[in-house]
Write a structure and sequence with these properties.
By secondary structure, this protein is mostly helical. Helix content is 68%, strand content 4%. Helix 3 crosses helix 4, helix 5 packs antiparallel against helix 6 and helix 9 crosses helix 11.
Length: 234
């Protein structure tokens, strides 16, 4: 016979859970020793294994208790539970794979930067994980089709340019300066290689999501002022 502690260690079920199973009548030990300490026999261990198996495929404790009172169960009852569990696990697996892919992606995108702007980092990672860019591409941005490697390189370039934009804005550099004009030209060039239609400016792409974008008010003012000065100096 096993004590509650021994059974817990053997089956990786907590003592608290075993006590709860006893309380609700799902798994009552067949014997008690002096002081009321529970003692479990082989049959109890087998019943616990059955509980764990049925719980794994999604049955509630109430349903398990009812099932274990029977000598057999209809195939359909078990298969429905199995199919539901499989669907849940596949969805979970897809989510994990998507997260892994996004983490590799953001690692590549930021690989050329010693110091990384946290707002920009979080913006890109959020976009990758919650498909913000895909939503925009379906509605208005008309992003061209790229391979995964091409997408990484483009995102890396965007990250570098927007990092530079933040740096120039922090230095209070004039939008008419050669550095600012070159930055604007580089962003325009990158957009032309990314967007199918020619109606999107660096500003509209950068703040396509008005609620969540990687720029401060100061940086947005600097970004919005670039086209005007670019035209004046051209």
């Amino acid at each position: 016979m096993l004590t509650i502690g021994e059974l817990a260690a053997k089956t990786e079920v907590t003592i608290r859970t075993l006590r709860y199973y006893d309380k609700i009548g799902l798994l009552n030990p067949r014997h008690y020793k002096e002081g009321g300490h529970r003692l479990y026999q082989k049959e109890d261990v087998m019943r616990l294994q059955q509980i764990q198996s049925l719980k794994l495929i999604g049955f509630s404790l109430k349903e398990i208790k009812s099932l274990l009172d029977k000598s057999s169960v209809e195939q359909g009852t078990l298969h429905i539970a199995i199919d539901s569990k499989l669907a849940h696990l596949k969805e979970e697996r897809n989510s994990i794979e998507k997260t892994i892919s996004a983490l590799y992606h953001i690692k590549t995108v930021t690989s050329n930067h010693q110091n990384i702007d946290l707002h920009l980092f979080c913006f890109v990672l959020y976009s990758l994980l919650w498909n913000e860019r895909e939503k925009h591409s379906q509605s208005e941005l008309f992003i061209q089709s790229f391979t995964e490697e091409e997408r990484k390189k483009l995102d890396q370039q965007y990250f570098t340019l927007y990092t530079e934009l933040k740096y120039l804005a922090a230095k209070d550099l004039s939008p008419s300066s050669s550095q600012a004009r070159q930055l604007y030209s580089n962003i325009q060039d990158l957009i032309s290689r990314t967007i199918i239609e020619d109606k999107f400016s660096p500003t509209s792409l950068a703040i396509s999501n008005e609620i969540f974008n990687p720029f401060t008010e100061k940086e947005l003012r600097f970004l919005k002022s670039l086209p005007e000065h670019q035209t004046d100096q051209s």
